[in-house]
Amino acid sequence: MAVVVDTGILYALADADDAWHERARAWVHQTTELLIVPVTVLPEVTYLLHTRLGPSAEIAFTESVAAGELDVEDVRRQDIVRCCELMRRYSDAGFVDASVIAIAERLKIHQIATTDRRHFLRIKARHGGPLALLP
User: Would the pTM count as exceeding 0.85?
Assistant: First the structure.
């Protein structure tokens, strides 16, 4: 199986002071799942890394993506259409969160790795029922 990974988990892995750091590290080290990152998540992660932890953290993350440590999934037109539907229905969900859901739906993945329980717990995916939020 696979897991779609959101911004918060990726940031928490890099920031030892983040409240989710230990939980995210433990989960990543024990999981055997394919980690899929929507391309829309990358700018958000790199911005946070650069502004909060500095350029070296941003470079380290970018190098890990270039090395294939994460599987990057492109956004398709159908995903953007679904993002619009999700943003209309859940007004506090932005484009990046909506794209995580849309890509998970398209790939028929029911698991999302995220620190953002507030948004993702409310959203009902097309494939029925709530999403499994990890870790």
Answer: yes
